[in-house]
DNA sequence: TTGAAAGCGCTAACAA
DNA sequence: TTGTTAGCGCTTTCAA
């Protein structure tokens, strides 16, 4: 910058201002500085700015990417979420630092101006962990679980209720829920599901399924049919689980949807293209990502932000 | 650091060294400094280090996350790739800066010590774009296309050959390839496919399909059957395309696999759980991510790195 | 094994 | 509208 200043015949601070489009600098001067910068291939030094400004213009996004059995963040969802976040953040000069829970130890991550946590984890353990990092934080997960935190999530209760209402409309009377209520989002889905069913005097069976794989869904349904052969409707906490469930149903000679109705969650391409095409509760992950990004940014910039619930709707297909 | 130095009764530079585990500092001194740092909740300032060292300890990963029709990076693959990259990079102190092609303008991205590009784009346009950023770069894509670049990719030619060999073994004689050779990886798959078939005197039909959606696959197959009703084997450049193809085949009254064999690419969960379960060429994205990470790191640290091809294998299922 | 001095490149505060 | 001064927090000489 000092060199540019010399060449352009101004002071370093003027160069700094020109490059930042400060209104304090004459349009002509700015143009000249910019030209010179261009011409000499000047490269701005972010570290120096960050040092001076005490910020990093960086938001850490915590995702669990490890291939684990209990892999909630598989499929295209986190990528959509990440897409929304990245789009919104980069359009305002922030960068996205991708990290896992373990990454909290990295200096770069510690220096992030804010954190977005994707998935609060079973029993909110991930959330508590990240909270210890002491940065402005926004979470994607179950909104109802945390008054004290800023959480963006889709309306899981409504999602559950939609599934229940659909089953009622179809005349089903022995529904089951497949999922693990230890995860706040799933607990909300079950709550909405149960509450809506209760209005019709129905209590769902709810075996805990703590993996999110096709296999887990199939196993759970095999066990379920053994204990409750009269089940006629299955609401799964994810499309993957629903697909496993359908497989098990067919293996046991039940027809879908004639004998048993099945509703999944997430409206994933996997479910949409499955045979039979899966009825599923839809959530818009890209919008969610944008919203998460706006909220951390607000927090970082000292404004306040509130939790928010995104609408959800049922996509009726064959099952 | 200066404050810590005072409290610990040493100089700032000693604190610096102690915190970095420098061998130049006495073990006792180090322990004392660390204790004090811990106790006072000292937070290391990355920007200052980066300013001094002229590096950012950051690697930009360029992914196309925008929801476009031609969305090569959909599905779980990029997340696996990202998982492998993140795991490897963070274990050596680097952070992952997630960005898109447009993100190249961001100061943080420009400051990255290296770049990993996921997918070279049609006609390698993405690659040329990123190359202009002037940073050490490693690309995930078609290895054979670029002598001058460091590319990691799976063995697409072998993948194509595996599909061809399978068709031959099944006695198929009128195969087609579905995909867009403008993308280097797909061109390689087609090359391997054609070459292996040529050994049996067979030339595949290869209509260009430039979208990567289920719908595109279906449309392409409808058109294909119109022109070439005798087709008895379909090799698709992705599982999504293969699934669309199967749908169209069934709509036209062909049985899979009795009348027409279908092989997809990527071995995605979507394909594996599809009905009928899709035969597909498998690639290991996590390993690939780790490899990409190692190679940029080598480049950044002044070592040299070479392009590398990862093995590929056929997962035979029903189709 | 420890320390003193100097400076990385930027911008805020204050002057002119 | 422009410039001067100072300093953000770290690490690399070089010296002790």
TrEMBL record, chains A, B:
Keyword Glycosyltransferase attributed: no
Keyword Iron: no
Pfam families found in the cross-reference section: LacI (PF00356), Peripla_BP_3 (PF13377)
SUPFAM superfamilies according to UniProt: lambda repressor-like DNA-binding domains (SSF47413), Periplasmic binding protein-like I (SSF53822)
InterPro entries assigned to the protein according to its UniProt record, in alphabetical order: HTH_LacI, LacI/GalR-like_sensor, Lambda_DNA-bd_dom_sf, Peripla_BP_I
GO MF terms, alphabetically ordered: DNA binding
Record keywords, A-Z: DNA-binding, Transcription, Transcription regulation
CDD domains in UniProt: HTH_LacI, PBP1_CelR
Gene3D superfamilies, A to Z: 3.40.50.2300, lambda repressor-like DNA-binding domains
Superkingdom of the source species: Bacteria
Domain HTH lacI-type: 1-53
Protein name stated in the entry: LacI family DNA-binding transcriptional regulator
Native organism: Pseudoxanthomonas mexicana
